[in-house]
Amino acid sequence: MIALLDEQFMPAESQSSCFHVAVLLRETISALRPAPGKLYLDGTVGGGGHALGLLEEGASVIACDQDPEALEEAAVRCAEYSDRIRFIESNFADATGRFAELGITGLDGVLLDLGLSSHQLDTPSRGFSFMREGPLDMRMGPHVQRTAADVVNESSQEELARIFFEFGQETASRRLAAHLVKVRSRSPIRTTSDLAKAIEAVIPKRGPKHPATQVFQALRIAVNSELSVLERALHVLSDWINIGGRMAVITFHSLEDRIVKRYFKEVSQEWIDRPEWEAPRRNPEHAFRLVTGRAVKPGVQEQRINPRARSAKLRVVERIRNES
Ligand SMILES: C[S@@+](CC[C@H](N)C(=O)[O-])C[C@H]1O[C@@H](n2cnc3c(N)ncnc32)[C@H](O)[C@@H]1O
Fold first, then answer.
1. Closest residue by CA, ligand 1 atom 19
2. Which of 37, 45, 106, 268 is placed for a possible disulfide with 63 were both Cys, Cβ 3.0 to 4.6 Å?
3. How far, in Å, is the centroid of ligand 1 from the Cα of 273?
4. Whose CA is nearest to atom 14 of ligand 1?
């Protein structure tokens, strides 16, 4: 069973009212080893908490986010260091396309702190939460083409069932997809509460989790192509890391974590073996070493102060050579 985001059913009073509280801040900054003269890509700058941590240690930062609201917030938060931070509005998987114009030839570190900011989740008009009435949007940025309403109202029944099962591990995926197709034939599903009501009619409440938790997560992943973007970004961005530079990724559910763990293993294994080979062979992808054997998780204190950190996992690798 995948670990799902808990944030949607957090009591409102335990949620921070600020833009976003950076997760695993101390651990991430110390793993990235910022110092004057070093250059980092923060691919998910959000409210700028991690970027500020890097800047405070004297490093320079390319701050990327696909959400213009995040870039605005980060610019304010990091204003004191405006001479060492530059902003890119882009999907992080495409950020390297802007490197030539910025004169970037290599990076000393990359940070991806995946998922949503608290601001995105808590803003009703973004449509991410079934606890807040709003349009069924869920796009992390304006360049994402289809909204969640487009996906729910236009996808085939089979496609909806696949999304709910693959990205939300929703066991009632087929029944739910069939029900949504019936509901939308009467009237389009336009808002978060339209969808939440339709889900409640099919999936009974199980424990403390709202039945819509998994379905909303699944739709968000589909709308933003989160898993395929992550796979592509890990490959593209790791090519830009200088020897001695590090890549740190914070994930919030096991679908993301599995991708990161597998990729980090792929690039950090010196030898690979296959049943059909006579002997193990050198891994041509071997260019990194694992800095974190096991994922780093937030301590009890951080989880208490910031319940949204509960499912976070930090993994880090360091480039030790160029690929052969
Ligand atoms: C968890 S927040 C980051 C918080 C940030 N580290 C901080 O300290 O405030 C995730 C941010 O990543 C952005 N994001 C998620 N996926 C992205 C992608 N593929 N490309 C660019 N930005 C992305 C979201 O828009 C959101 O602002």
1. 91
2. 45
3. 36
4. 44
